[in-house]
């Protein structure tokens, strides 16, 4: 038992270690890219990421969170037991300690994205 403001760690709930997710800071890609190119880069990342380690279900949760609004993303990572190191989701861990690194291009759009009409 602790102070009224302290929390007892509940194994598996995820919320005791998760930081509040926030929108990533604006960033610029090395060269201007189209939405189609950005989508292709994202698909390639998500297709290959699970092959470099970690658990498939955590990668799936991170993808769902990266593609969701902030409120839903928070619920997804909390429900999956993801430990958020960087609030923009670029560095996360699972409860076994496996590290998951997400490039900026999967969590947000670059400022120099070519807007096609």
TrEMBL record:
Q: DC-UbP/UBTD2 N-terminal domain: from which residue to which, for each copy? A: 18-116
Question: Positions of the region Disordered?
Answer: 1-30
Q: Which domain of life is it from?
A: Eukaryota
Please note every region of biased composition (Basic and acidic residues): 1-10
The entry's protein name is Ubiquitin domain-containing protein 1-like
Q: Which Gene3D superfamilies match?
A: Ub domain-containing protein, DC-UbP/UBTD2, N-terminal domain
């Amino acid at each position: 038992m602790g102070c009224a403001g302290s929390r007892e760690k509940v194994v598996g709930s995820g919320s005791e270690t998760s930081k509040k997710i926030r929108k990533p800071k604006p960033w610029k890609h090395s060269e201007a890219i189209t939405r189609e190119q950005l989508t292709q880069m994202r698909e390639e990342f998500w297709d290959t990421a699970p092959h470099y380690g970690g658990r498939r279900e955590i990668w799936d949760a991170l993808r769902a969170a990266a593609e969701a609004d902030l409120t839903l993303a928070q619920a997804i990572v909390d429900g999956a037991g993801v430990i958020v190191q960087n609030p923009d989701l670029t560095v996360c861990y699972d409860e076994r300690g496996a590290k998951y690194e997400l490039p900026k291009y999967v969590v947000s759009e670059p400022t120099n994205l070519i807007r096609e009409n």
